[in-house]
Amino acid sequence: MTLRCLLVDFNSYFASVEQQLCPELRGRPVGVVPMMADTTCCIAASYEAKAFGVKTGTQVAQARRLCPGIVFVVARHAEYVRIHHRAVAVVDTIAPVEQVLSIDEMACSLPMGWTSRERATQLALRLKAALREALGECLRVSVGIAPNVFLAKQASNLQKPDGLVVIDAGDLPGPLLRMQLTDLTGINVRMLARLQAHGIHSVEQLWRARREQLRVVWGGIAGEAFFDRLHGLASGVQAANPRRSLGHSHVLPPEMRSTEGALAVLDRLTQKAAMRLRREHLLAGAMTVMLKLTRRHGERLRPERGARFAPTADTRALLHTLRELWPGMVPAGWAPMKVAMLLHDLRQPGQTSASLFEGDVPGSDAEQAALWSAVDALNVRYGRHTIYCGSGHQGREEAPMRIAFNHIPDLETEG
After folding, report:
1. 414, 390, 395: which is closest to 403 by C-alpha?
2. Is 0.85 topped by the overall pTM?
3. Mean pLDDT (whole number) for 209-233
């Protein structure tokens, strides 16, 4: 095994960007929130706040109790995206960026001649210095270097903030033994339960498990793939998987927590998703709508409905499906708190056949495609609300840009 991958992981990215842009926040505990409300949660916390136990998912009211001096700021996703693109450009001048894993992580292939521990470490130090000079002192990164992306990610997690850890073949499994099973990428609570059911309770036991045993735990070849990643046998940087789904979600502000308000926001989310489909030259063949509802005594309900249809990227066709799914999704006495929609069964236009029933699928002909191309061009040039379907008028100011774990918004189409 040789060192092949260098992974860059920005530390407390959203909060660090805010501290860089606002010098008065530097050195202070900061919580980044989607909106100013005690009922919402922190989507990021600075290291000063983390020292008091505040972390991603901590409610604002609880964060105040844990850290009375905390400062809350509303997330500015467009700024995070802009700085992300600058960061990728800087990193790419030093080590080729092969895969952007998320808004705050990117994986690079080590150039030929830089795969020894000494030279890879030198390269990482150059990279950290270049990022500090280009982006500012608050935007620190932890760098992991290893034979593949998985191990490089674990290495980057071992020393935060501002760390640099190399895991070479001769080091394994030593550095990993300091971690809990759930610290390893890909092992969530469900997988932890499955591992424990098979007698695996520690990283050491996981390391000693045979490939065939992990195949049984995972229920297929995914277990063998995990074995290879863990033991450094998988290749350096994996090719990106094709997109399988595309969607948006939004926590409703108090004034939109009604049946009409929730539908208006879903309408807005669907129009955004349709534009993304066209931007990425994709068609969707299915839609799922999901809600989070509450009522007076704290009860919760999570209704979900879905439908399949002829593959399309036509906004009106998708809105028609939304309205077919909607009736009865919010029972009397329940208040919607969060809405989400997901488009799946994605494919390239050349991977589908035209409808046998002309006119049944709005947007299936060239004229409709040309219409939406013109609409998208006008919205990119003059702003997102220049032209939109009137059914989404009530929710047009809702659901601003959000950064999901595996999706970096396009500022032109989602800004």
Report:
1. 414
2. no
3. 93
